[in-house]
Amino acid sequence: MDNLYLTNTVYENERNRIILYFSKNPFSTKSEYVEKEKFFPEINIDLPKDFLQKILSDFRKKINIEKIKENLCKITSKNYKILQQCAKILSLATSKNILLIEPERQFLIKRNWSYYDVFVQVNRNKINKIRDYDVTNKAIKEYLTNIDDFSKKKITPTITRRLMLSNLLKVKPEYNIKNDEILNILFENNFFENRLVLKNKSTIDFSKKNELIKNTINMDFSNIWAYLLQDDFYNISYETINCNCCKPKELFSTNTLSSSLVEVMFLNNGTYFLSKNKEWSRNYHKNNSCKENRDNYKKTNGLREYPVGPFFKNQKEQILLFDAVRLLEEKEITLTYNNNNISWFCEKKESFVSKLIHFIKNKLNQIETSINLSTYANYSKNINSLELENNTNFIIYITQYKLLTDLLEEIPKFMLHRNTKFYDPEIEKAIKSIKLETINKINTDNCRLIEQTEKISTKSIGFVNKVNSYFIKINLPIPKLITN
Ligand SMILES: [Zn+2]
Fold it and tell me: Is pLDDT above 90 for 252?
């Protein structure tokens, strides 16, 4: 039986239905099989049902509001335009960010289907998706069959990117996706699938400029952080942070984040300490009295950062768990076990971010194997590297590989970015604390490091060696050295 590709989907607003077009040729506008289905698009929102009924009373005959769980409702409508109006009203009235996805994509997310997925027709009215079939590669090659070698080399990266993204993101192939849209669409899909709601409207952020420092070794850690968000390590995502099922019973649980605030009592008079989190200590300095004392302490001791303090015997204060651990060892404090402000991650359910990273990692492994095979095949036939560069398979794999490694690196950056609709201060705190914790685990000799977003600069070769062996030990790639 012939394979069929999903080549197009169209939503008909007047008839409340989705039409799916399947074709034997992935690039044909002619279709061998068409499926029509009733579909009511939806939005999810974290507001109570009675409130929604009141505010959307004008539409009550055209929409359906259903309570999904505590503080989460689903609004569906037969008519997508009505749903758009509702989203607009709700967004204006409540200043909430509302995720509204076009009906075609909603349908595909719910089905777990996508463009260029491969299907077989089971009978006159039924079609089945073939799972885990390497879709895009076959489609790309079919596209390239009647093209001459010269154009093929030029066209392969473009067509590979277009097909792969269309398949991965479930957006129509004709839509030209810009690089900065990729993660936005991917996160939209996952938020929708998991019924996650967006936090309040994002704030404006001006990102800092990076500079490289002379005579130092500069390392870029951006290829590492994504891996640490997997459930093998910290399992950080919007639905797994401070989950309902895994709140730590004790302060020092494996899933407590070091960015948690704990109340401690100081045991000595005139205590100052240096927080490992420079951002936190800067904020402490800005927002607390005794600025002059800290100024003096900093000058007298030749410090680069402001200390935290001064504290007096029996004084209680909330500090980072990260610092508290060290101060406990040094017998400067005791824990009060009151007023703790703990953050944690889920230990039971893998997050969508973790699944996404695993998925990309697997794809990369597959491509790596394929690249090795195709290099080997060429090598053994004594074909030179120029011919390898002209090899269509090779160009497809390299294009896919580059796209996926970039995507992987972008994930934590995207989650930290304050200008996206997905921004969540809890996530920012968690990712930053993971970075800090990791660097401190490596920097046991307390070498001087200059940290600038993704880059860390140091004059110590010892630290660089430690970095390399640390990541190899936990089976992760090593940070990139930056040469300039
Ligand atoms: Zn949990």
Answer: no
